[in-house]
Amino acid sequence: MIEQPSMITMQLMGKRYEVPSGLTIMAAIEYAGYKLVRGSGCRAGFCGACPTIYRMADDHRLHTALACQTLVKDGMHLVQVPYVPVAKRIYTLDDLQPVPNTILQYYPEIAGCVACNTCSRACPQGIQVMDYIQAALRGDIERAAQISFECISCGICSSRCPADIKHYPVAQMARRLYGKYITSSSQHLAARVAQLDNGEFDAEMNTLMSMSVEQLKARYEQRTFETVAGANQERSATRQWGSAIDPVDYQDELEPDEAACSVS
What we know:
The chain has helices at 25-31, 102-106, 118-122, 129-138, 141-147, 156-160, 167-182, 187-197, 202-209, 213-221, 237-241, 256-263, and strands at residues 7-12, 15-20, 51-56, 63-66, 76-80. By secondary structure, it is an alpha+beta fold. It folds into three domains: 7-80, Roll (Ubiquitin-like (UB roll)); 93-182, Orthogonal Bundle (Fumarate Reductase Iron-sulfur Protein, Chain B, domain 2); 199-259, no CATH class. α4 runs antiparallel to α5 and α5 (141-147) packs across α7. Mean pLDDT is 85; it is low at 235-264.
């Protein structure tokens, strides 16, 4: 007999609902009967479309989370914030230079940072948001880009900032400047782009486009990977892991024995 999950209570926008334990906040909202037109995107923690704020019944503090990545808890009082208004500056990257005052010229409000670190505490990704704002203020584009690398532009930091700084457009600008002007170019990427431009993969792409869904699934499950440097075998998802799970997702971070156990 399959054990049924216990029911817990949450409040969504002030209304009480009973939902099964073990659901993400997003799944619990849908279980309660809501259709998410906005506030749901990739459902995998990457797009930043589902920022959520909540309080617990026994805690006065306001907490932040991504609805697709956080389990609903008993006594949770929550609401989604599907968009945090941000006035983005318009610029052409080719016209900019990676000099210390470039970001400050477009986002002078970062000079009003009071270093309270509220933005960092609010970040569901655990990013040191205040640090990259301070780096941008100092003109350290490289550090600002590196610290903000995992930013998903959910805007929660901006919703909590007492100085009304809009953080993630600053991070985006830093990463764009860093990627175009500062970081070294990838020879492998340039070679691959040249191959694409020369049409070296056109025939294979046409073959894939002509396949049925069943043929594509079979091709996917039988796919192989380039030989890993120092490895003695070609990486095949089906052969190595006993599953079509892609090692590129999270399995490549595990030892083979651990991964085999996790997908069995």
